[in-house]
Design goal:
The protein is mainly alpha-helical. It has 7 helices and 2 strands; from the N terminus they run ααββααααα. It has one domain. Strand 1 and strand 2 form a beta hairpin.
Length: 158
């Protein structure tokens, strides 16, 4: 195992699991996504510490616990928690290895719920908050993001 693989395992065991994030897809993603690739080279060692890591232009890589809780909140449709996490400074420009983004999730849930319902209105609030923080709507699709990466475009967070 590499140094960063060991750090990812320690991060999950000491920061994510103790925060009551137990869903396997989230744990698995936290174990395989190379956080060090999303920060400047000079900050790679800090990618796994228990705090956010600035990477320029006022943006930061969320601490693992906060990111995991945001993913968990979106998955269980706890939109109040998702909104609170965004208000604490969560990045809206994160991308999964498969190309998914928070904006993709918001678009999915906007289609799922009938306009005018309380849940639809909560998701609309998340969308507005995310747009104010730089999220692009309509969101690029996961295949479009993967194609951009294949062309050498990197992630939106860079």
């Amino acid at each position: 195992m590499s140094q960063y693989t060991d750090l990812r395992v320690m991060m999950v065991d000491t920061q994510v699991r103790p925060s009551d994030v137990t869903k396997f897809p989230i744990i698995e993603a936290m174990l395989v996504v190379p956080r060090e690739d999303h920060v400047p080279a000079s900050r790679r060692a800090a990618a796994y510490v228990g705090g956010a890591v600035p990477y320029g232009n006022g943006r930061e890589l969320l601490e693992a616990r906060t990111l995991a809780k945001l993913l968990d909140a979106m998955d269980v449709q706890d939109y109040d928690l998702a909104e609170w996490i965004l208000l604490q400074g969560a990045s809206v420009k994160i991308e999964t290895p498969a190309g998914g983004t928070p904006a993709n999730a918001v678009e999915f849930y906007l289609k799922k719920f009938r306009p005018g319902t309380p849940t639809h209105d909560q998701v609309l609030r998340l969308k507005a908050l995310m747009q104010a923080r730089g999220a692009v709507f309509p969101a690029p699709t996961p295949p479009e993001i993967r194609e951009r990466r294949a062309r050498g475009g990197g992630s939106a967070a860079q």
